[in-house]
Amino acid sequence: QVQLVESGGGSVQAGGSLKLSCAASGWPYRGICMGWFRQAPGKEREGVAFMNAGSGSTYYANSVKGRVTISRDSVTYTVYLQLNSLKPEDAGMYYCAAHGGGDICHETQWYNYWGQGTQVTVSS
Prior knowledge:
Elements: E1 3-7, E2 10-13, E3 18-25, E4 33-39, E5 46-52, E6 58-60, E7 68-73, E8 78-83, E9 92-99, E10 113-114, E11 118-123
Parallel strand pairs: 2-11
Antiparallel strand pairs: 1-3, 3-8, 4-5, 4-9, 5-6, 7-8, 9-10, 9-11
């Protein structure tokens, strides 16, 4: 059973930074897809960043490209999301997710394991 536990959310001012963490357990790490999604109140959930945990290949949503970095620590099975130059529209609940698809990490419909989320608030 895959378990994903997020942490690192908080409140920052616009222009600030946060680093979110996702601790993964219960699944062979190599080859799985890890993703970060977010959902603001009243809006649909959107994919933010994705990574093949084996190859290290990454994919980013256009809305965050250049401001966000997804990375991993293969020793601790932790995936990170570095958020920089935060804007009020970046606020929301951020979720870590996983699936075993390997080469299709950027395809959001396959993510079937989810964490409980961590809240990001950005004040203007």
